[in-house]
Design a protein that fits this description.
Elements lengths: L8 E10 L4 E8 L5 E8 L3 E6 L5 E9 L4 E5 L2 E3 L6 H13 L1 E12 L10 E11 L10 E7 H10 L5 H14 L8
Parallel strand pairs: 4-9
Antiparallel strand pairs: 1-2, 2-3, 4-7, 5-6, 5-10, 8-9
Helix pairs in contact: 2-3
């Protein structure tokens, strides 16, 4: 139910940085109460995430270093969209490039916004099944290790703090619900 409009009206917008992937803006806005404020935010091209589920019940994850936080993470395969790219096609490409797996069945699970306080990034989450291992084809700036683990192991990794990546946590919670038969997939 929507009782009050909390929309903010942009009065001016300034691109303060334009990089290869991200753009940073600083906008002056008028709040619904009439006060003025500043909003700084990142424009992101969007991303995709997969839960690759092997026939034996294990999941395919990746271990890689993330420079922004200067540490290694255990995470689900993911990648950014190129402008105008279909999210499923992007996820199929990323899964093959990063892990060497091809999935014959895909289920779109949800979309999520991981950083709503400062970015417009939208991620689409997929379940990938009926996997066939081919050949990994990493980009030249990608260094990662493919890790296979059971859902129980992955959930314990969340509980112990080994997995802290938000997209991976969301994906694994979806996987847990699906494995328990609590959510039925369509398509």
């Amino acid at each position: 139910m929507k009782d009050q409009d909390f929309s903010e009206q942009c009065q001016s917008s300034h691109n303060v940085f334009a990089g290869k992937m991200l753009k940073v803006y600083r906008d002056e806005v008028i709040l619904p109460n009439g006060h003025r404020s500043t909003r700084e935010y990142i424009i992101h091209p969007g991303a995709v995430v997969a839960i690759p589920w092997l026939a034996d019940g294990r999941l395919v994850l990746e271990r890689q270093y993330r420079y922004s936080v200067r540490q290694e993470f255990l995470e689900l395969p993911a990648g950014k969209l190129t402008p105008g790219e279909d999210p499923l096609a992007a996820m199929q490409r990323e899964l093959l490039e990063e892990t060497g797996y091809v999935a014959n069945r895909w289920h779109r699970l949800c979309r999520l916004h991981p950083c709503i306080g400062y970015a417009n990034e939208e991620m689409t989450l997929y379940l990938a099944q009926d996997l066939t291992l081919t050949k990994q084809n990493l980009d030249e700036d990608e260094l990662l290790e493919v890790v296979e683990m059971s859902l129980d192991e992955a959930m314990r990794a969340i509980q112990s703090g080994l997995i802290t990546d938000a997209k991976t946590m969301v994906g694994l919670f979806w996987a847990e619900k699906w494995a328990r038969g609590e959510w039925v997939l369509e398509g």
